[in-house]
Amino acid sequence: MQIEVVKSKIHRVKVTGADLNYIGSITIDETLMEAANLIEGEKVSIVNVNNGERFDTYVIKGTKNSGDITLNGPAARKVHKGDIIIIMSYALMDFEEAKKFKPWLVFPNETNNSLT
Fold this sequence. Notes:
mainly beta; Barwin-like endoglucanases; eight-stranded mixed sheet; 2 helices; 8 strands; globular; pyruvate; cytoplasm; Asp_de-COase-like_dom_sf; decarboxylase
């Protein structure tokens, strides 16, 4: 049996931009991507703490150490600059493997999205 479990989570980051006219996705600072073990093109679920919106999109690599968290395309309508969001990805794995699996959990500074 396989189950879906949380693989990666960036907990409570501040949205730095929303670009409605860009192809749909979320741009994430490369430093945060590396810390959370996310790759470009990976599907992620977004939860907006400010308004309760929940949606899926995919990751685009942002500039390293920029703090960039930008929602692009239609997803830009679900956030406002300054909103706090949670970014999660999931993985399918064997039930027994999942019992031992430890996800990558990242808790950035909400003020500037840094890891320090």
